[in-house]
Amino acid sequence: MKPITAIIADDEENLRMGISVLLERLWPELTILGQAQNGIEALSLIEQERPDIAFLDIKMPGMTGVEVAKKISGICKIVFITAYDHFAVQAFESEAVDYILKPVTQNRLEKTLIRLKGQLEAQDDSLNFDLKMKKIIQVLENKEIPDYLRLIKVKTGSELRFIPVSQVLYFKAEDKYTIVQTATNEFLIKTPIKDLENMLDPKQFWRVHRSSIVNIEKIKMIKRSFTNQMMVGFDQTDHTLPVSRSYEHLFKQM
User: Fold this and answer.
1) Domains in the chain, start-ordered, CATH in brackets?
2) pLDDT tens column, 114-153
3) Residue 96's pLDDT band (boundaries 50, 70, 90)?
4) Distance CA 182, CA 197 (A)
5) Helix, strand or coil for residue 179?
6) What is the value of pTM for the model shown?
7) Cα Rg of the chain, angstroms
8) Rounded to an integer, what is the distance from CA 214 to the centroid of its chain?
């Protein structure tokens, strides 16, 4: 039986390595033929290797993942990697074409692989898949990349303040509120962690636990607790936060 093959294309080395590690764990029979750090390399790699699957970041230098997808129609299945779920996910789900949100988690990748295996087994469905992919490309080409949140509105007593997100160390869910932690203050807001994740720049703010998001520019150290739990520490404070096992791969290359 011919082995199933794939390539991974993303301009973030940490993310490429993280996906590769997760794929090796979740689908050991899958052969990774190579990695690309921009769209031009991705197109060349796909045309040369003819993989069964291409994991493509939507926003890459040289050529975007969407531009690459247009040129490789029919060569392989495509899984888009995206940080922009609030403008793309509806399009993906309506056409049953798969995507992965940054940061990539084991749970989401598992679901993607189940769908991929089903698509690869249904060999006579390739035409239908290509038609769906063309619809997705049309939607993505007409969408603008949204602005990220720059200021957090918090209430202190009777006053409203606006905190630059660049000053935030982390966001942490606490009962019905979300803690906004800076180096000197703690504030409470009502915006859920899940909603904040969609509003923050994924290259700066990483989900590390179902209840917390951290500003990676404020991380001072990464260590293990006596129970082998990965912990992150921050500048100008002794606060630490646990990292869920499914998110640990994000820090492997730091």
Assistant:
1) 5-141 (3.40.50.2300), 151-251 (2.40.50.1020)
2) 888 887 876 545 556 666 666 666 666 665 555 688 889 8
3) very low
4) 17
5) strand
6) 0.58
7) 20
8) 14
